Amino acid sequence: MCDDQFTRSYWYAVARIEDLPEGRPRATKLLDVDIDLLRTQGQATATTRPSDGQAIHLPTKEQYGHVWTTLSESPRDLYAMPEFEEPGRRLVTAGAITVSCSGLRVVENFLDMAHFPFVHTGILGEEPHTDVAAYDVELREDVDEVWATKCEFYQPKAAAAAEGGQLTRYMYRVAQPFSTVLYKTCPIREGAWDLIGLFIQPKTQTECDVHSFVLVFDDSNSDNALLQFQQMIFMQDRMILENQVPSLLPLDPRLELPTRADASSIAYRRWLKAHGQTYGVLPQA
Fold first, then answer.
1. Is Oxidoreductase one of the keywords UniProt gives this record (predicted)?
2. What is the pTM of this model?
3. 171: closest CA among 162, 179, 161, 180?
């Protein structure tokens, strides 16, 4: 069981709302704890499934298209995304994809722009446009989140609705250790940001379910086309993630040497270390 109180203090997405039909139980795992999910009378419930003793009822909430639960008796507030209330946006969710690595590795990979031309060739990047321009990274202490802003990268096809290549502007947000959101230039609406996010469910220290979403302005693509575009990107990342060694995230900077392009990763690891993160990380040397 996870005894990392920083990790336990958060809410975690454990299923899409539509994947939890009335009266059909669903078994899953969160932080090494076996959990049973059930929807009855329109309300989702979550209970622990101990090998002995009595099951414990966990708090649940439904937000951002997902069912959330927590192992904490006094969890932090679930972070706000007011864009979910904006008219005209379309929400597409992908369901859980299991990845055999620490969920923290998934977050860090999501923050990495340098791999775009080599892993997502012809889509999110291409040669010779391989340089990562300097960008700003900050810890927003009022909400205890890591943000990377003023990010720019040339992309041949930045989104399903994009026509041709463009210099795409990004903002990255790490709202909690296992949850991250990308805000990117909307190709069809001036001044708006499209949102792409990962709600990561750490099942164990080396296995996670990744629940993803896109929240976009797009009048031309079907939900299936939007979903297929994002899943194509993530499945390319999945091959990289499951072959990383070690599968846990090292916090010791001597184990993986960063470059200028890794500013957001450096800030993320420092933030985890400052909070005493022990779950899903490689112990300090």
1. yes
2. 0.89
3. 180
